[in-house]
Specification:
Length: 634
């Protein structure tokens, strides 16, 4: 879900290089062999493991009655900005209980029935709990296998963003997309909204006839005349991976298993940008093992999408900010593709275990990049990540700097930061450096094969680790997982490639003309390192000098533009204000919005400007973004 584009740039080209080296098939064969060996070694853990983490963000009582399948029959109403219909839930009533607990948030429940004959059932919609919404408690019998909930969403449902035609590229048709992670699925579907509960699903979705519907499932590639679309997701997924998008969309084929959806006016640009996606998938399989989800497609959403990408299975949701025209930012797709293993295949059991999704993904990315570009390149990326992590640790309460979080009574989004991504990465890196990288690679391949389509919590992972790699027990595992901050044995990072950037910055700071700096071969990462060295407030003349030479205010690279524009208001660089305002109005990615608004409110002039711009921009933002900015600007 959340994307760490900063750490992923240029990986598309790297993955292509892996394919061209001809090693993918051999890697896959080795993976199949080691998976077989590992199965016999860890079967006892699989059979006997009782996950200890309790999900405090769901009303579901999964040990009593758990949903195993969801069948939706819904209609998308753009005029009233609601979804109406029914959710048919298949149950496993383990405890023969007489109550079923579902998660909802601001849903209107019209009626509930049980069984194939749809006998009307009594239900209670309990009072609202902050962040969690409302428990829907349904009277069932011990032999109940099917429950049908007739419902409608609220026009302000947090998961749903309804866009007017003016907010789209084509300007003719409205658009809808969902964002279910972390616990927003309950605001558009009554369900058991926990990452530890998996179910298959199907759906019948009725939309206006000139629009196409897509889901995180088997998808159409053309519009139909009726505006009725049927979907099937045969692999079990958690609710946060439920996804729906409706708009004026067209499909462009990339490879046999890959393609891209976008508004028609953007399709050619998108198919060009993602031309290497099939090869990326083939390369990823060579590293991680078999891709278990059938197809891998991407939909490019309008710019209000709050994240860089969301790893919805079969259909990654992506921001248009990666469409740079030169394929330099499409590496974000590699991050979401990696989640097909770390997150979608083996999922954190609760949001307190979020690092199990994201730390693993960052680890895999850097492993790939190190193998293809050398250790110096990987170390450069790790150094940037360490910088991010150190800043994050400074800005958080100590309790929130633990890998194993305690988010009871809070929004699980509070845990979606660099602790999960970067502290998780450095923990796994420490283990790899201790037991040996090849041995740890084998361990991870086996881990995904062993626990596929299951959930895992921190305690379960540690138990598996200690049995499979007993030499890791000599590390201070508990300090890494259960104590705040960074332990003393955090792996050391030596980014030699940044040494040249440091020299170039020092030379410029000392008076050297920026035009004389040798920046031709700088990657995005090196530019970011250079810009990060700028203080928050910079002499306007120095900013003008850089801008005149490198045209940073007009940069088409969203990462570089965001880093550069964060200096504009604190420094009083008025010439960049129009570009800053345009960026904030047109881009809804929270990753960019938060630091930019934070930089603006450091001055009185900036506060006024921030509120003025936000008044224009807020209608373009998803709730995930505007809830954060609302708090920031109060």
């Amino acid at each position: 879900m959340k994307n760490k584009l900063l750490h992923l740039l240029s990986i598309a080209g790297l993955l292509l290089a892996l394919v061209s080296c001809g090693g993918s098939n051999d890697n896959k064969e080795n993976s199949d062999s080691t998976n077989t060996q590992d199965t016999s070694r860890t079967t006892s853990i699989t059979k006997n493991m009782e996950l200890k983490s309790v999900d405090v963000h769901t009303f579901a009582k999964a040990k009593e009655a758990v949903m195993t399948d969801l069948a939706l029959d819904i209609k998308v109403d753009f005029d009233n900005k609601i979804i109406t219909g029914k959710a048919i839930i298949t149950l496993d009533n383990k405890a023969k209980t007489d109550k079923l607990y579902l998660d909802t948030k601001e849903l209107g429940i019209d009626k509930v029935t049980i069984g194939d004959d749809e006998k009307e059932a009594k239900f209670t919609l309990e009072s609202t709990v902050e962040h969690l919404g409302n428990a829907l408690v349904i009277d069932i019998s011990p032999d109940t296998k099917k429950v049908t909930v007739y419902y409608q969403t609220n026009p302000q449902a947090e998961a749903l963003q309804w866009l007017s035609p003016q907010q789209t590229a084509g300007k003719k048709h409205p658009f809808l997309f969902t964002q279910s992670q972390a616990i927003l699925a309950r605001s558009w579907v009554p369900c058991q909204d926990s990452p530890g509960i998996r179910f298959t699903y199907s759906a019948k979705v009725t939309v206006p006839k000139d629009l196409m519907a897509l889901m995180s499932a088997e998808n159409p590639t053309e519009k139909n005349a009726e505006g009725v679309y049927n979907f099937k997701m045969p692999q079990p997924i958690p609710a946060y991976l439920l996804a729906l998008s409706v708009g004026d969309l067209a499909f462009g084929k990339i490879g046999e298993r890959t393609g891209v959806y976008a508004e028609p006016s953007m399709l050619d640009k998108c198919t060009y940008e993602f031309a290497n996606m099939e090869k990326m998938l083939e390369a990823a399989e060579g590293i991680y093992g078999k891709y278990e989800w059938g197809r891998y497609d991407v939909i490019v959403l309008p710019p209000s999408f709050p994240f860089g990408g969301m790893e919805n299975p079969r259909l990654t949701f992506a921001t248009p900010t990666i469409l740079a025209g030169d394929r330099s930012l499409t590496s974000l797709i590699a991050h979401e593709l990696a989640h097909s293993w770390s997150g979608n295949l083996v999922t954190n059991n609760t949001w307190n275990d979020f690092w199990l999704n994201e730390g693993f993904t960052v680890f895999f990315e850097r492993k790939i990049m190190g193998a293809l570009r050398g250790e110096s390149y990987a170390e450069m990326l790790a150094k940037l990540g360490l910088q991010d992590l150190q800043e994050t640790v400074k800005g958080l309460e100590k309790e929130d700097t633990k890998l194993k979080l305690a988010l009871k009574g809070r929004n699980p989004d509070d845990g979606m930061n660099d602790i999960a991504y970067e502290k998780g990465y450095f923990f796994l890196r420490l283990i790899a450096e201790t037991v040996g990288k090849e041995k740890f690679d084998e361990f991870l391949k086996n881990y995904f094969a062993q626990y596929k389509f299951q959930s895992m919590d921190t305690e379960g992972f540690l138990a598996h680790l200690k049995q499979a790699l007993p030499e890791a027990t000599k590390l201070n595992l508990d300090e890494w997982v259960y104590q705040p901050g960074l332990p003393a044995n955090c792996p050391k990072v030596k980014a030699t490639r940044f040494e040249n950037i440091d020299k170039a910055y020092a030379a410029w700071e000392g008076g050297k003309n920026p035009a004389e700096l040798d920046t031709k071969e700088w990657s995005t990462h090196e530019w970011l390192h250079f810009l990060r060295k700028l203080p928050t407030k910079v002499e306007v003349a120095k900013l003008k000098e850089l801008d005149a030479t490198f045209k940073l205010t007009q940069s088409g690279n969203s990462e570089i533009a965001a880093e550069w524009l964060s200096r504009a208001v604190p420094s009083g660089y008025n010439e960049a204000y129009p570009a800053l305002e345009k960026f904030l109005i047109n881009v809804g990615r929270r990753k960019f919005l938060v630091p930019l608004y934070k930089s603006m409110i450091t001055t009185e002039e900036g506060k006024a400007l921030a509120k003025q711009v936000y008044a224009k921009a807020r209608p373009n933002y998803h709730s995930v973004s505007y809830n954060t900015i609302d708090k920031l600007l109060k």
